[in-house]
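[job 4471] stage=fold_predict status=RUNNING
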Amino acid sequence: MNPLKASKLKGTRFDKLLELDQSFEKSQTATTTAAGKRRRDVLAELERQVGERKRRDFGDTDIDMSFFDSNFWDTLVPADNPLDLSVPSLDFPGIDTSGSTTTRSMGMLPDSSLDFGSIEALADAFNSMLIQANFSYFKAFARDANDVVGLMKGSQTNDFSDVLAVIRPTPDEVKAYGHLSSDLIQQCTFDAMDCSSWTWYPIPNQKYGMCYTFNHGVNTKLIKTNRFGSQYGLKLTLDPEVDEYVGLFSPTVGIRVVIHPSNIRPYPEQNGIDAATSFSTQIGIRKNVINRFKDYTGCIDAVDPSDGSDNGTPTKTYSYSILNCLDDCVQNKMNETCSCWDRFSGESHSAPRCSYFSDTQSACRDGVYSDFDQGKIDCDCSLPCTDVYFSTIVSSSRWPSPRYSRILAKKLRNYPANGTKQLAHVHVYFEELNYQSIDESSAYELRNLFADLGGILGLYIGFSVCGLVEFLEIAVIIIQLLFVPMKTHRTAPVTNS
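[job 4471] inference complete, writing structure tokens
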């Protein structure tokens, strides 16, 4: 992660971070120089001893010394010898799980979001992005949030994550000191067409710095495609500007990629893919659609951002989403209760950020988060009625190849052949153009009730007609027996003649 460029931080509250980086570099340079000199002295002494032994055992006869390779010299130097014998390693995909330098957000098609299945799951996902630790112990070491040296001395985490939580940059600082899209995006093609001159919509993020969205639809038409396969899609050559890294902000190197709907605000902390430098990251996507039944689920229809309605979202640029709704709800509650904010979603706030060095604001802030965890804050954030998301399949390969690196360096001009190793390549494409649709519907509707009633009544009526005829016949017989007298007929007895 490197939200801010080092060259822009001189004279700001992050000056101490630059001084720390410079002091570490000087110390490392001095250590490396001393270690290098010591290693050369050791190797020279070893060569002298081997030469004397050669002359003693073989005289002046020339022999092949090629069997004394680098491994031989390394075995002569003890393993615990404090010499710099290491080689810089590369970041491999899958290892870097803490994020990357700068975010690149991509909306390949309009209307998509990640579906977690329930409000509780989404609330838990949102809650995982909130920093709820109590950092009151910093007061014994630091004067305020700008005292970086004191904060690092008082840190109680091995990776200084508590320090990062305290000195997080504000939206205005990210916009002023973050990476520029012109420096970040070196090459861009979409469906074999150059897109280097296309506009990218900037979104500041407190963890990843300046993020840029492709196919954002702001004052432009959304881009659609009818092509699929790895030969098409969006291809990017990105420069994370490793030389501009600030040590405390940048434990990893790479790019954070988020596949999200064009009209929904991305959350790279929660959803994203890390693309490492010196690799080409291939991201195959498939479209999925979920249509929920509003009458029974209480879902919310997403509002088209062009109509000027926010419908609970932090800005009018984006449509409704649950993460936006929860974020806006909690921060508004904190602003009302504490007169400060804790987490920004890309927009500037009129109120100041809650200070960890203020007992009142810190206690109030923790109280708001505690109420949110216990469900005491009524945010009224329902699932969207229409949810579109993209499933992804990620693969990677080493990039660029040795011969292609020379071609790439010549094309970019500002990069030597070995400098292209600091670049990252990202390729996003549709695997297929068909999509999966999941539609919710009522299990038993009113028309089904009338149809079933009609069927049952028809059955009853059919039986009733037959039964009515038989009932009338029985009634006639009973009446005859009760009210019609029976006539008797007497016959003369028959005698034998």
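[job 4471] summary: The first strand starts at residue 102 and ends at 106.
[job 4471] exit 0
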